[in-house]
Structure formats: C-alpha cells, structure tokens
Amino acid sequence: MAKMPGGVTMEVGNDGVAVISFYKPPVNSLALPILAGLKDKFYEAMKRDDVKAVVVFGKGGKFSGGFDINVFDNVHKTGDNSVSPDSSIDLVVNTIGDAKKPVVAAVGGLALGGGLELAMACHARIAAPRAQLGLPELTLGIIPGLGGTQLLPRLVGLSKAIEMMLLSKSISSEEGKKSGLIDEIASSSELLNVSRRWALDIAERHKPWLCTLHRTDRLGSLSEARNVLKMARQQAKHIARNMPQHQACLDAIEEGVVHGAFSGILKEAKLSKELILSDTSKGLVHIFFAQRATSKVPNVTDIGLKPRPVKKVAIIGGGLMGSGIATALILSNIYVVLKEINSEYLLKGIKAIQANIRSLVSRKKLAEDKAQKSLSLLKGVLDYSEFKDVDMVIEAVIENISLKQKIFSDLEKACPPHCILASNTSTIDLNIIGERTKSQDRIVGAHFFSPAHVMPLLEIVRTEKTSAQVILDLMTVGKIIKKVPVVVGNCTGFAVNRAFFPYGQGAQFLLHLGVDPFRIDQLISNFGLPMGPFQLLDVAGYGVAVAVKEIYASAFAGRTFDTPLVDLLIKNGRNGKNNGKGYYIFEKGSKPKPDPSVLPIIEESRKLANVMPGGKPISVTDREIVEMILFPVVNESCRVLDEGIVIRASDLDVASVLGMSFPSYRGGIMFWADTVGADYIYRNLKKWSEAYGNFYKPSRFLEERAIRRIPLSAPTSTTSSASKSRL
Ligand SMILES: C[C@H](O)CC(=O)SCCNC(=O)CCNC(=O)[C@H](O)C(C)(C)COP(=O)(O)OP(=O)(O)OC[C@H]1O[C@@H](n2cnc3c(N)ncnc32)[C@H](O)[C@@H]1OP(=O)(O)O
User: Fold this and answer.
1) Quick one: which of 39, 46, 45 has its CA closest to 8?
2) In this structure, which of 119, 235, 479, 591 has its CB flanked by the most CB atoms within 10 Å?
3) 109 lines ligand 1 (CB under 6 A)
4) CA–CA separation, 234 and 228 (whole Å)
5) What is the pLDDT of residues 514-536, one digit of tens each?
6) Residues 152 and 164: beta-carbon distance below 8 Å
7) What is the crossing angle of helices 279-293 and 649-660, to 10°?
8) Which of 136, 137, 212 is nearest to 181 (CA)?
C-alpha cells in the first residue's frame, strides 16, 4: 500500500449510523492529529440529530497499531512531556465511554496499545477473523495510557488482563471472543455492516449498552484480586529486573480494583507521564526504531529492486548450526535439502532437526499438524543432484578454509546461475572462501547465532562484490524466517563477535588481575545480561574459546589478552556445561553453582599470566568491574563503526541486544555508551591502559569523539575528514 496522508472522516448513512474512519498508513498509528480528529468527529456525531449511533473504523485493513511512538521519541529527545497522551480521561471516559450515543469498534487486522484501548472504551467490539489484539506498551517502558489498565481487566478478568499486559502477549480475535474482549467476529467484508447493526441494536436497546469502565462483573472479589496481584508482583520481579513499568502497571490496576476505575485512570495517567521520561523507556523506544531501521540499507533497499522468491534452500552440513538453520527454514514453509558427507552424519542432522521441532511441540509452541508439515519439507541427500534448482545454498561446515573453498567451487558448478551462495562462517573472510569461483557477486555471509532456530539475529555479511540483489533476497528470507537481518561488512568476527570479543577477554583480564570470577558474573548479571561471562563460557563450551583465540589474536594483534586458563581447565578435566564441571557445577534440575574447587586452577593461571601490578590483586569497585568489561566492548564497537562494518550505530545496538542479549532497556551497546558519555569512557580506558596495557587503549574514533564532545552514535559524517576517508 502506498503511503498516503492520513486523516479522520465521518459518513452518516441512511440508517442513522455515523462511521468515523481514521487512516494513517502503514499501521493507523494514533498520531496526535488523528486523536484530535477523532474527538472532533465524535463531538459532531453526538451533536447531529440524524446520528443515532457510531461505528469507529480503522481504514486499510488494520484498526490501529497504537499511539504514535514517534511522540515518545520526541519527548525523549526534547524532554518536553507536554505532548504525551494524558488525554485518556477525556477520550476514554467522556468522549467515548459516557457518549450519549452508542459507539461500536469495527476491528480489522490488529488493535494494539492505544488502538485496543480505543476499541475497549467503545460499547461493543466486532472483529475480523484472526485480528491481533494486545497491549504491548510495557515493551516500550511505559504502561497503557489510554485507560488500558482499567479497561482490559473489566473485559477479560484480572488474571488474563495481567498476563496480556505483563508479558505483552497478543491474542487473536477468536480468543478475544472467548475471553469477553470481542463481542462478535465478522468476515472482513461484513465487518462494517455487522458493526452498524450492533450499534443500532444498542441504540434501540435490543442489545445491552455496556460502558466498560462501569463494569465490575469480571473483576472478582477484592480478596481474590489481591491474591492475583500479589502473585503477579512476584512474577514481575523475575521477568523484569531493573525495569519499573511492570510494577507500575500493577499499581495502576490495583488502584482501579480497590478505589474504582476513575481513580485507576488518574493513577494510570500519572504513572504514564513519569515512565515516559524513564531511562528504560528511552532505551526501549530507541530499540523499537533501531530494529526497524535495519531494514533500510542504502543502495540496497532504496534502488527499486524487488526481492526474488526463495523457495528451495540447500544446507551443507547437518551439525548444530546447519540443523538449526534448516529448522528455522522449514518452520517458515521453505523447502530444505540437507546435504552431509555420509549417511551416519546425515541421520544425525535429521534427528537433530526432528528433536528441535519436537521440543517446540512439547513446549506447546507448535501444533502437531504444523510440525508434521514442516518435517515433510525436509529432504536429506549425500550428493549435489538436488542442487540443480535451489535458490540458495547455506554452507554450515566446520571452520576450515580449504574445505569451504572446495565446497564453493563445487557449488558454482552444481547450482543454477541465480542461486545465492551463502556461508554461515563466523570468522573466515568471505573473499577467501570464494577465491576459487567466479561468482563473487552472489557470495554472501549468513551468520546465524546458536541455536539458529531460536536466536533472532541474522548477520548478513557482504563483501565489496556481493550484489545488492543478493543482499535484498537474503534480507527477505531472513524476515520470512522471523529473524532480524542486520547487514554488516566483512571482517574477522563481523559485527557482534568482533565487538564482543573484548567482553570475554576483559573478564579474563580482570580475573587475572585478581578479581573473583563469581563476583564478576554476579555484577554483569545485575547489570542485565542473562548470565556473566564465566557462566557463558561454561555454557558455550570451551571448544569455541580455544578455536577463536588465535584467530582474534592475529586479526587484532596488540589488543587481545591470551590466557592459559582454558587449557588448564581442560587439563584438569573441566569442560564447562558439557561435562557438568567448569567455573560452575552443573547438575540436572538445579541452577549452576559456583565451584570453589576451580580457584586453585585460577591461581595457577594467574601466576603464569603474571599481569597483576606488583604481583598483588588489584582493588576495584563493583562499578569499575562492570566498566572494565563493557568499556573495551564499546571501544571495539567504535572501531566497527569507524571501519564501516555497520552502517549506523543503532545497527550495533540491535545486534548487541539480539546477538549478545545486552539488555534492551539500556538501548543496546552504543546507546548505553552515550548515556555514560564518550568522554568518561575514554578517560577511564586511557587510565587503565596506562596501568594495565594495550588491551584498554582507546581507539582513535573514541578519542576523537570524546575530545570533540560528539556522541558515539552520531552519524559518521560528523567526524573528521581523516575518519571519513576510511569509511
Ligand atoms: C497511550 C498508549 O497506551 C501507548 C501506545 O499505544 S504505545 C504503542 C503500542 N503499540 C505497539 O507497541 C505496536 C508497535 N508496532 C508493532 O508492533 C508493529 O509495527 C506492528 C505489529 C503494528 C506491524 O508490524 P509490521 O507489519 O512488521 O511493520 P513494522 O515494520 O513493525 O512497522 C511498519 C512501520 O510502522 C511504524 N509503526 C508501527 N507501529 C507504530 C506506532 N504505534 N507508532 C508509530 N509508528 C509505528 C514502524 O515504525 C514502521 O515504520 P517505518 O516503515 O518507517 O520503519
């Protein structure tokens, strides 16, 4: 659908029903002029004698994607909170809820956030089949602010409403019908007609005239409500550490349950205003737009190219990565040919895919018939005969240069000329992989993160020769299989592994300076990562650490930290989670426990590394520990930006959140760094590099931005010409 200017219109039919339609493509967001237009039209409809009832309708197949998130972005940039949506009392209570004529919402496609709140304030809701309904405001660091905290519990009951809000979980119109959110489901073509009839039926008292905020029948008794809220508060503590909006949402709900809806609405408005200004909301709104920005790649998505269909994909290698990628593809209805070198490995790969699918079924994330359908799209092969009509190949074999070169030269012969030749390498230069072919324009990196059918990030690695068409095609496939594709340049580690290699190494460095590893892990997990670097190492397995150590050391000579510790751990029979013994003890059914018996091995490693100044452990604060691990990551991220490996800083934010589980509410690595300040980071790195060596040496990009007081995320055009020339 072409973008068209939006607006609100009203048409009054001969039946006396006024249809108030709003239009704001692409998702009918409730921009401020739309809200103002709605109010005007409602006012007019109430005044006009020829109007008996009102239907409110979002044009273009979608009711509404909610309040305009750009407004929050503006509030964050300007600090001016006067435009935030505290009109809820007026719109929800007066204009719609207490309207003198019945109002029915005709909900097509989706009603999210403010969109669903608008619909809930109406006296009935008619929805098209499979419409998506939800209040996802908490994912933006705010709470529903157009009455949602009061309206939803009054329609679906307290437990269901809390579940939907706290988990930002959408439901379909069919489920909405069962739970009381939706009054009737009507086909898209009949949606308006059925809604008109409902509105007239209410006006003529053939159907009840229900004002949502006046209802209490779904709320249960006060003591039941208190129990539900108490449990929800405990749950919120676990799912939303370091975030204020979950408890605030429960505060607003509780206020409404205990003191009535009007009081609840006032509390909601007050809390909304405060939360909009929170750092959490700033970080989450930034990530919302940053994620959408990744689909805009200059000279790829803006030059009129159309993505070509990719219907059949071949995967070479059925190991952990290959089987995960195959799972992701068949789950999205793409036909997959899996190639292995012998039937034993092939069977192993197929079994791994079946296990992935079965685990989704057993966790109720996939229906049995869908699982069967997906598995029917998989075919195992031992040669290239099936490759003659594939649209894309993804190579996922071990990191061995000559093996990959041989595979790519075979692929050039076995695949049709349009076929995309992708490699899932995480380290090897794609130019080297494709050296023995003449197909450099269709060679591209498709770097998935493990487990590939679960992790949302897909790094699309382009070389100078990869064609724009191939990048666009792979971006499209990425979206079809529900990944967030981020286009990056070709270098060791690409964006995520490159930016984050100092994370693990920084933790090792601190440990060798005498800091306790379990203290480090605790602090990093308090900061918001799902686990600390040592537990992550245990979970990922030491094999990866050993394999990449030398690659990083040679690519980033002079700023890596090599440690004998992993070798010592392996020598002492420790292999991390793989054999249940690493820094932690892993036992089935219980959380990993720090293992004190690892400390003598660490001591031995400290002696060998000999980096403690004067041979004595350093003394550091908790804050310094977090900074000594994350600032080197920021520093390397600066180099990634400076070298043009990513096209914008916010791509690194998205990549760090989706690839490394950096807390999204901190806005991603560069956004967070700017909240800390380039100057502060630079000064500390400089201080540590003088005390402890080159691992901490600030990059030129960081130094320049710190000195010139330019945010790290500012577009690279604001840097000096020396820097620009390298981009
Ligand atoms: C006061 C109220 O309680 C507060 C609120 O209502 S806050 C808003 C609550 N609503 C939401 O959180 C929904 C956010 N939007 C979404 O989840 C998804 O965009 C969607 C499910 C609606 C559509 O998804 P999809 O079709 O994949 O399209 P998607 O690429 O995400 O969005 C299309 C465009 O619409 C924009 N958009 C989506 N929702 C928007 C919104 N609520 N406000 C402003 N812009 C919005 C996106 O930024 C994107 O813009 P772009 O093309 O310039 O990049």
Assistant:
1) 39
2) 119
3) no
4) 10
5) 999 999 999 999 999 999 999 99
6) yes
7) 100
8) 212
